[in-house]
Amino acid sequence: MRASLLHGLQPSRTVHCHLLLAGIYGEFRCHLRPVAEHWYLLAGQIDLMVSDALPVNQHIKSGRLRALAITSGKRSPLSPEIPTFAEAGLSGLVAVNWWGVFLPAGTPKPIVDAYYSALVKIMANPDLKERFAGLGVEAMATTQDEFKTFLADEKSKYAKLIADNNIKAE
After folding, report:
1. Distance (Å, rounded) from C-alpha 79 to C-alpha 77?
2. 18 plus 61 within the same structural domain
3. Mean per-residue pLDDT for 111-128?
4. Residue 156: which H helix or E strand, with range?
5. What does the DSSP 8-state code read for residue 84?
6. How far is Cα 21 from Cα 63, in angstroms, rounded to an integer?
């Protein structure tokens, strides 16, 4: 199998590790140009790729590419027909791109609260949600405590993946 993984992108790294754990081996190429990767797949130069939705959605909708699974823990409301990896038979694989907002340590609580209130209001804007959906992104805001828990869970998950697979920095 020839697969293209986008170098440095968290879902690609996670999928690569899980494919190896599932006994799926092949030639994994890492690329820095995500915009061009789907063209390699369409041309038959690679057999598999991990991608964000934006570069491949039009090809999935046209039938030129087939989405096997998404890396989130639940089906996306933007593409509910695509199963999760767990539904496709590879449990334990959950890796999503996410963006968070961070403020400097020691920022006074009233400023943090005002910033958070403004951010939640912006993220609830239907026009913004629609623009994000056009990019294949589900826009959402969580509470500060939910985000802290999420970050701790991500750190724990990847620390275990690194330790279990004896992954070392090069």
Report:
1. 6
2. yes
3. 93
4. helix 144-164
5. B
6. 30
